[in-house]
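Here is one chain, start to finish.
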Amino acid sequence: MERISLKMYIYSLSDLDDNVFYVGQSKNPHFRLGAHIANSHLLKNHKDEIIAKICNDGFFPKLNILEQIDVDLSSKKSIFNVSDREAYWISTFPNLSNIQKRIVKLKPE
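Its structure:
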């Protein structure tokens, strides 16, 4: 069986003072940042408000790659590992804008 894999990234967004306000996962974090910026005018949540303010001031949020994960798409455990790692990184930053919506249930071993 051929192994199909891809790279996933856990990333953070921070303001100009390096305060992290969001942690997410994406296979293309730079593209995802563009999507966050493009949708921020909708002001659907606190993340959007922060991004809109940064952009209205003439800047962009800072994108930081926290972790790169090689994912074996043929293994559910490997795929689940991305959410585990995202949950870990979310737990390391206080006051995230997405903390309430990103409570990840860990899979029992």
